[in-house]
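Record 1 of the preview.
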Amino acid sequence: MIKIELAEINDLDDIMKMIHNCANDLISKNIFQWNEKYPSRDIFLTDIEKKNLFIFKKDSGVIGCVALSYEKDIEYNDIKWLTKDDENLYVHRLAVDPKFQKQGIGRLLMDFAEDYARDKKLKSVRLDTFSKNERNNRFYKSRKYIQLDDVYFPNQSEFPFHCYEKILD
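->
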């Protein structure tokens, strides 16, 4: 059975194993967006405590996740967004275990995020993704996200992260 549900503290070890697999897979492809500093166990613990983290579970355990937040990170303050603030959902830490990638799980998690935002009567979904991760950039563009300005996260990379926004219908 497959389902998306709110993560709980007892899921944290499985989440971190999956994230470790994802980080190693990215590094093996010369995509240096995740490292030993980010995303950390503490970040996922905070996501769980704030009830922001949703996990994709299969019989074998946690195979995907996405953090959904109403809070705008300060790094986003200078971005020229398409909609006004306070009516948006921010997507962070979308991940699918490499063993389960290319099966539509990322698409299902983003469908879930967009439906979640619609249910909350929000105007848009906002996110960023690493500029050197061509697959992610193609994925968001294929979902009708509009690429905006860049932000930098020096603890992750010297290269920029592209911000995207999708206005919901």
